[in-house]
Write a structure and sequence with these properties.
The protein is of the alpha+beta class and 409 residues long. It has twelve helices and 20 strands. The chain has helices at residues 15-23, 53-63, 77-87, 94-101, 103-112, 126-136, 159-171, 230-246, 281-290, 294-302, 337-341, 379-392, and strands spanning 4-8, 27-31, 44-46, 67-69, 120-123, 140-144, 154-156, 178-182, 186-196, 199-210, 219-224, 252-261, 267-273, 318-324, 329-335, 346-349, 359-360, 370-376, 394-399, 402-404.
């Protein structure tokens, strides 16, 4: 039976969700200002800021929708919870949503659950931050309390660094607050989970490798499944399950990142999100790994059509993405892009819109990355295919320092 579904966001990462809703025969209302690719697939588009939870609620009430969802964006999480709570629709409440948005609340709840937690404190002024830095010690990290995409995040190696970075961090925070915490060095992981009716199960888990660019906290590769030893994987998944159940998660997809301290092997949460992973982790990598179409799951979940979590496999293959940045300048060649996009083991890329003459921007966080999603039968083969992709891509950028290619690490 056709129902009325509201989807918040119409960007690249919401397109599959919007198209699947239409494919399933539902009246699809997209909420988003601006001009985004998902809008052309919707039955109706509402020019409403998805961060404005009151406006989203009013729009959903007037449209008398049967469900509200989004995916691969943090911006919609609170508004969905708020509107669903007020309208009596299936979903997570605002208290739960806040734990996934506010990094300070996130840390506090993990401590309450008895989980190893990175030493961290919330501050609302530079003077407070400098005082906290003395207690936490160096190196440290500063980040907005409620931002996403690594915006405003910086490593701190001195008081001078903190003074220089504080304003940027607070500027990316909706309430102006930031957290200062100990900087942990070690191996990084990702865990993606699925929940329905308060039952939580692990979907997949990965090894993360970060770019070596200073203060660009973004992964150059995410490789699934992790090849860590079983004891480490067991601890990692147990932490994730305890955390999500302790947060009161009712339903949805979650995307969490962890680090294992190289000094003592302790596992800590970096942060968790009440959504599927971006960069097509939710829409493409999850299906490669588990055979679950997460878009269909989210739609049926939001409309109350599921009795339980759908059956799925884990670690069906080896898959993941390799990412790169383009140096600031003008694109003069896109050689190899079409060839990579048509490789039989490549499931998706973010390179479709790269055009000769385009101006590339400075990068400071996860934005402006390009990625290639691919699969293989083993980690060895996956690494070989990543190297093949790198060798084929001959994108050239005219920069102030001459011609340059993609930045892979």
């Amino acid at each position: 039976m056709s129902k009325k579904l509201m989807i918040l966001g119409a960007g690249t990462y919401q397109v599959d969700l919007i198209k699947k809703s239409k494919e399933l025969g539902h009246e699809t209302i997209v909420v988003s200002p601006g001009d985004y690719p998902g809008m052309k697939y919707a039955d109706k588009v509402l020019d409403v800021n998805i961060l404005d939870h009151e406006a989203v609620y009013e729009a959903a009430r007037k449209e008398n929708v049967d469900g509200i969802i989004s995916d691969q964006t943090d911006m919609a999480v609170y508004s969905i919870a708020y509107a669903c709570e007020k309208l009596g629709l299936t979903g997570n409440g605002t208290e739960v949503a806040s734990l996934f948005i506010d990094k300070h609340l996130m840390r506090v709840r993990c401590q309450e659950l008895g989980l190893p937690t990175i030493p961290s404190e919330q501050v609302s002024s530079l003077d407070e931050a400098l005082e906290i830095l003395k207690r936490i010690g160096l190196p440290a990290i500063i980040k907005p309390v409620d931002s996403a995409g690594s915006k405003g995040v910086s490593r701190i190696d001195s008081e001078t660094d903190l003074i220089a970075c504080y304003e940027e961090a607070s500027g990316f925070s909706a309430n102006g607050k930031v957290i200062v915490e100990k900087f942990i060095i070690g191996r990084e992981f990702e865990v993606d989970s699925i929940a329905l009716g308060s039952e939580v199960r692990t979907l997949m888990y990965a090894d993360l490798n970060e770019f070596k660019i200073p203060n660009v906290f973004a992964s150059m590769t995410r490789l699934y499944p992790s090849v860590a030893n079983q004891e480490t994987v067991d601890r990692l998944l147990a932490y994730d399950k305890t955390m999500l159940e302790g947060f009161g998660l009712v339903q949805g997809l979650t995307h969490s990142e962890y680090i294992m301290d190289e000094t003592d092997g302790e596992i800590y949460l970096i942060e968790t999100a009440l959504r599927g992973g971006g960069t097509y982790i939710s829409s493409h990598i999850a299906e490669l790994q588990t055979h679950i179409n997460t878009s269909q799951f989210l739609i049926e979940m939001a409309l109350g059509e599921l009795d339980g979590i759908p059956a799925f496999e884990t670690a069906r293959c080896h898959s993941g993405y390799v990412a790169f940045y383009l140096p600031p300048g003008k694109i003069v060649s896109t050689d190899g892009v079409a060839e990579v996009m048509h490789l039989p083991f490549v499931a998706k890329t973010t390179m479709e819109t790269l055009t000769i003459g385009d101006i590339t921007k400075e990068f400071h966080d996860k934005r402006n990355r390009h990625a290639v999603i691919l699969s293989a039968s083993s980690r060895e083969e996956l690494n070989e295919r990543i190297e093949q992709v790198k060798s084929l891509l001959k994108i050239r950028i005219e920069t102030s320092e001459g011609l340059k290619g993609p930045i892979w690490e």
